[in-house]
């Protein structure tokens, strides 16, 4: 990777406003080619990408992303899925059995789909496109799966909007590297460490604005009491567990082998 490529990564921004410039098929396929070159377990490529371009379908899809305007405004929305359906069908057609209908392989295919997604995003930004991850895919997985007609053994993992930027927002602040780096073994955080790493972050103007908007005294309470409430988390968690069970990923060791 050249320093110029690295500069693109270090200066990446989340883009929520897009121009009406279309993305041609050659460019889109180039992004996909770059994505599938990413690492994956066993070269099984246990993922699929659903491309949404149709204006009316984007409007419908936006409802499952809590009405976020960029889902409609972006030229393309990609829904990247963990997909064992295709692999299972190949196995059956070649005279072997289904062995990846469990939580382990949901996790493995989710990781591979996530790596694919980030590789597509990196390639997109190199070509002057902008992206935005939509965390709502985790909250509305079943509804999105139904809308996209996802069969058993397929779970939506990531959704991104994709298009040419119509804005240049400021860089989002990050915690210092020392917050995350552990040499040789994990070093747990002391009370002093937490204050050291978070005090400056809490004093940022954007953090202060979040507190004011949410009427909370500190940023931690913004997250736990306003943005991602525990009660909501547990409700969505139960719904997600029910969904992945429905999709066939919770076969356990107590069940007889086929």
Structure description:
This protein has 258 residues and is α+β, with helices and mostly antiparallel strands. The protein has two domains: 168 residues, NADH Oxidase, CATH 3.40.109.10; 51 residues, no CATH class. Helices cover 49% and strands 11% of the residues. It contains twelve helices and four strands. A four-stranded antiparallel sheet has the order 1-2-4-3, sandwiched between helices. The longest helix is centred in the middle third of the chain and has 24 residues. The radius of gyration is 20 Å and the shape is globular. The model has no long low-confidence stretch (mean pLDDT 94).
Give the gist of this structure.
The chain is of the alpha+beta class. It has helices at 3-10, 25-36, 55-63, 69-73, 85-93, 103-126, 136-139, 141-147, 191-202, 205-214, 219-227, 230-246; strands spanning 47-52, 76-83, 130-133, 154-163.
Secondary structure: elements and pairs:
Layout: H1 3-10, H2 25-36, E1 47-52, H3 55-63, H4 69-73, E2 76-83, H5 85-93, H6 103-126, E3 130-133, H7 136-139, H8 141-147, E4 154-163, H9 191-202, H10 205-214, H11 219-227, H12 230-246
Antiparallel strand pairs: 1-2, 2-4, 3-4
Helix pairs in contact: 2-6, 10-11
């Amino acid at each position: 990777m050249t320093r110029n490529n690295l500069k693109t990564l270090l200066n990446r921004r989340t883009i929520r406003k897009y121009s009406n410039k279309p993305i041609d098929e050659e460019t889109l396929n180039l992004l996909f080619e770059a994505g599938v070159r990413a690492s994956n377990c066993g070269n099984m490529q246990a993922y699929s990408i659903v491309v949404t371009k149709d204006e009316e379908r984007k409007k419908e899809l936006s409802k499952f992303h809590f009405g976020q305007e960029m889902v409609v405004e972006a030229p393309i929305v990609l829904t990247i899925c963990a997909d064992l359906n295709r692999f299972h069908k190949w196995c059956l057609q070649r005279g072997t059995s289904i062995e990846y209908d469990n939580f382990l392989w949901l996790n493995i295919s989710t990781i591979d789909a996530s790596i694919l997604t980030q590789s597509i995003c990196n390639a997109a930004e190199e070509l002057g496109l902008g992206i935005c991850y939509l965390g709502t895919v985790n909250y509305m997985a079943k509804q999105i799966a139904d809308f996209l007609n996802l069969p058993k053994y397929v779970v939506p993992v990531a959704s991104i909007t994709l298009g040419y930027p119509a804005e240049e927002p400021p860089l989002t602040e990050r915690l210092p590297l020392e917050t995350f780096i552990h040499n040789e073994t994990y070093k747990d955080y002391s009370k002093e460490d937490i204050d050291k790493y978070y005090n400056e972050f809490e004093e940022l103007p954007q953090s202060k604005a979040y507190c004011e908007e949410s009427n909370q005294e500190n940023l931690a309470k913004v997250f736990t009491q306003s943005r991602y409430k525990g009660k909501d988390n547990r409700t969505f968690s139960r719904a997600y567990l029910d969904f992945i069970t429905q999709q066939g990923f919770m076969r356990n060791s107590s069940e007889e082998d086929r």
